[in-house]
Amino acid sequence: xxxxxxxxxxxxxxxxxxxxxxxxxxxxxxxxxxxxxxxxxxxxxxxxxxxxxxxxxxxxxxxxxxxxxxxxxxxxxxxxxxxxxxxxxxxxxxxxxxxxxxxxxxxxxxxxxxxxxxxxxxxxxxxxxxxxxxxxxxxxxxxxxxxxxxxxxxxxxxxxxxxxxxxxxxxxxxxxxxxxxxxxxxxxxxxxxxxxxxxxxxxxxxxxxxxxxxxxxxxxxxxxxxxxxxxxxxxxxxxxxxxxxxxxxxxxxxxxxxxxxxxxxxxxxxxxxxxxxxxxxxxxxxxxxxxxxxxxxxxxxxxxxxxxxxxxxxxxxxxxxxxxxxxxxxxxxxxxxxxxxxxxxxxxxxxxxxxxxxxxxxxxxxxxxxxxxxxxxxxxxxxxxxxxxxxxxxxxxxxxxxx
Length: 403
Description:
single chain, mainly alpha, 2 domains, 16 helices, 74% helix
């Protein structure tokens, strides 16, 4: 007899084994050191900023927006796979315990977001609202846990709806209400907090009504949602180690491709063209490069000491160069690459050249940020230090790793 509870335990154990194997690579070595330095520096200057926080700083809205987004982000992890579309549909009426366990797992796995937000925003709350008792903040955290559970259940109900536009509209409305509820609670405007809470309950009951009118489970949507989340995790893990389960996404990006087409049409430039096209059109590398570039620029702009700005500039140059190393193994499953009549040395040199160009571009953009804020000495230090680091790191560490 089919036991869905036992089946979930088996599926969960396999999922835990799969993710923990890659997490060891993600939180190991260089990235762990960089994250430790980054978090320590941010915590130090965050505490320093709190000592001179402006009186008109909108702390209620900042905390409300963060709490509202965390409550709204409540995806359901079902751990379903594509073969389940064939083998589990006949047992749908026996899957109640499985999905109950999936909801419980989805809720528990997301509690770290609540803990991180509560710990990060706690000093801001106690600084701005110093007259309030500490228990008030704890009550707010308890309400966040309750709203997150309600949003998780609402998301589960809306997964019975096939129309993506309706699901998207429901999510947008709930995000707005979640942000409003917590912003009013933090601001001690209990009348408006009560009104927005009632509106949220109405939407919650409306989702329940919609789910009851839809019979059956949309297995294809559940499988697609879970597959997309696992692919996102694999793309992150692929930056640190080889992931055979990763399915590459390709995007058009016509304008950027035109830039890659300027590579000379010669045998020795074969991998120059391949790596540039891969960097531009793959769904992984360009987005990662731009995100680290933007985050690094924002930190350089706001962190006060000039020497720490330069350190962060070099840190983000290192992070981007380290992440882009995965380009070398991107086409490892395509056998045509092995048929190219090109020696391995040219392939390695092509990647080293691209990484150096990307690092120098990032160095130049960071130097421009220094110029914008009027730190001319910092711009010179960042440009010289970043360029020197890029050359040494790529021609030293990266070259040795590729060999």
